[in-house]
Amino acid sequence: MATIETDYLVVGGGAAGMAFADSLITECGADVVIVDRRHRPGGHWNSAYPFVRLHQPSAFYGVNSMVLGSDTIDSEGPNAGLYERATAPAICQYFSRVLDEHLLASGRVRFLAMTDYAGDMRTEHHVVSRLTGRQADVVVRRKLVDARFLESSIPATHTPSFEVDPQVRFIPVNDLVNLADSGSGFTIVGAGKTAMDACVWLLEQGVDPGAIRWIRPRDAWLLDRKFQQPLKLLPALIEGVSLYLEAAAEADSEMAYRLATYFAVDGDESEALHWLRRAIYLGNENYPWFAKNPAWNRLHGHGDFERILEDLKKTYRRNQKNWKRLLEQAPQSSS
Ligand SMILES: Cc1cc2nc3c(=O)[nH]c(=O)nc-3n(C[C@H](O)[C@H](O)[C@H](O)COP(=O)(O)OP(=O)(O)OC[C@H]3O[C@@H](n4cnc5c(N)ncnc54)[C@H](O)[C@@H]3O)c2cc1C
């Protein structure tokens, strides 16, 4: 059996394995072997459904040494006004370029495509070619790196975990584009990006909304892409963070107090008092801290602030008395 020697054996040539190898090659003189059972790098993007795109701007994705895309702002379609989002073929092509132009070009990386890692992830490392069946032992001088932690289970490569009525025409999302005749409607199963993409794509193709049934086991937490923009549109990202913070402060007493303190330090008394009242309304009655927090020094002497503190002090004292009484009434432990 052949033997391969290397400093780092990276299992998985998806975004994670490629980004790790890319940084390693840039930062030090290590030798790296990447092993992947697919025919080229890029991981699950090689098996993606045809209408998928990155959900964030291309600029936010990929490896350090090479920019993905050309930082163009789209002028058409639902993404108009926002930074471009790469398609799956563009992402796969990009990772192939990273492999050819940076990793292989360094002379310190070997990419074993169509090859399974078959070791025990600790001391015994073997790889097996899916095409020839040939095996090799791998001697790892420094570290085995498992780059499969985020490996997704996708419909194109997995069988469903539920039963399907034989009367139903059941297809993975990848095959939607191959349909030759219409059925009585569409039932999309799943709550994530893939299911949402499938619904949106069908609507874009003119399918009647009434013909689409969407089964989702939960609701997803979605971020508005408008607020996830880099470069020239970075102010939108900051605006988005402010909006999230404000929404959190509306709902949470601690966040409300933090926002109030920010405005107190900033010298915006009216906003500071508004958010302080909100914090108290939501249940934050930490009078001792409110009274001595130095961030609020410049509001001492302000009529409204003093009245809020005075009211809070009374509630605080009342609560203290109640707690004392309750604790005195509580049965004493015998030990
Ligand atoms: C449809 C879809 C859309 C997504 N869209 C986005 C997005 O827009 N933005 C975003 O940030 N994230 C997105 N993600 C999340 C995605 O998981 C990450 O972006 C990233 O691509 C994951 O890379 P990975 O290297 O961790 O995993 P993968 O891409 O799954 O790569 C793991 C690799 O390990 C290989 N492998 C596994 N076991 C072995 C073995 N024993 N031997 C050899 N090789 C093995 C596999 O063949 C695979 O190529 C999306 C995920 C999916 C499924």
Structural notes for this entry:
Helix 1 (15-27) runs parallel beside helix 2 (88-103), helix 4 (234-251) crosses helix 5 and helix 5 runs antiparallel to helix 6. The chain has 8 helices and 8 strands. The relative contact order is 0.10. The radius of gyration is 29 Å and the shape is extended. It has 3 domains: 2-52 and 87-146, 3-Layer(bba) Sandwich (FAD/NAD(P)-binding domain), CATH 3.50.50; 153-220, no CATH class; 252-329, no CATH class. The longest helix has 27 residues, at 303-329. The strands form 2 sheets. A 6-stranded mixed beta sheet has the order 3-2-1-6-5-4, covered by helices on one side. Strands 7-8 form a two-stranded parallel ribbon. The model has no long low-confidence stretch (mean pLDDT 95). It has 335 residues and is of the alpha/beta class. Flavin-adenine dinucleotide binds next to helix 1, strand 4 and helix 3.
Set down the secondary structure blueprint.
Elements lengths: L1 E10 L3 H13 L4 E4 L52 H16 L5 E4 L2 E3 L8 E4 L5 E12 L39 E4 L3 H12 L7 E4 L18 H18 L1 H14 L2 H13 L5 H6 L10 H27 L6
Parallel strand pairs: 1-2, 1-6, 2-3, 7-8
Antiparallel strand pairs: 4-5, 5-6
Helix pairs in contact: 1-2, 4-5, 5-6
The structure holds flavin-adenine dinucleotide.
Number of domains: 3
Bound small-molecule species: flavin-adenine dinucleotide
Could you give the order of strands across the largest sheet? Answer: 3-2-1-6-5-4
CATH H level, superfamily name of the largest domain: FAD/NAD(P)-binding domain
> β content, as a range?
5-15%
Integer average pLDDT: 95
Biggest sheet layout? 6 strands, mixed
Order of helices and strands: EHEHEEEEEHEHHHHH
State the helix count: 8
Number of strands: 8
- Calculate Rg over CA atoms: 29 Å
Low-confidence stretches are none
Second-tier CATH architecture of the largest domain: 3-Layer(bba) Sandwich
